[in-house]
Amino acid sequence: MSERIRDVMTTNPEMLPESTIVREAAETMRANDIGDVVVVDDNGAISGILTDRDIVVRVVAEGRDPRATRIGDIASRELTAVSPDDPVDRAVLLMRERAIRRLPVVDKGKPVVSSASATWRSTAIRIRRSPTSPQPPRISRSR
After folding, report:
1. What distance, in Å, lies between the first and last C-alpha atoms of the chain?
2. Which of 34, 40, 57, 100 is most solvent-facing, going by the fewest CB within 10 Å?
3. What's the pLDDT band for 79 if we cut at 50, 70, 90?
4. Is the pTM of the predicted complex or chain greater than 0.85?
5. CATH code for the domain in which residue 49 is found
6. Buried b vs exposed e over 115-134: b needs ≥16 C-beta within 10 Å?
């Protein structure tokens, strides 16, 4: 049987609300030695992913103030997600096809729940970017 997402995913990645300012998100990334945070809306649903690259390209390079810019305004919103029960091969294929390095792990549209704490948690996997292939279906969240 092939390896499943739940076998390789990072559990309990950092999650921040959309209202968090960019400076706080950058400090969280530095403190935890990570390059991304999961952005959640007021209901705890994943609304985007914010990467260190997003901060550089959408804040620093555009001359925006990181002390005033909200992460909900700059996070990557068009997401491709996987289920904990998906095979790892599917995640690799999606990452190649989309030329992405991070995938949120969701179950029935919600972040994976942590049975240990009984609270909503998000999980993400990171697999090295590979050459692109044909386009897979995409999930996105409209605002």
Report:
1. 39
2. 57
3. confident
4. no
5. 3.10.580.10
6. eeeeebbbbbbbbeeeeeee
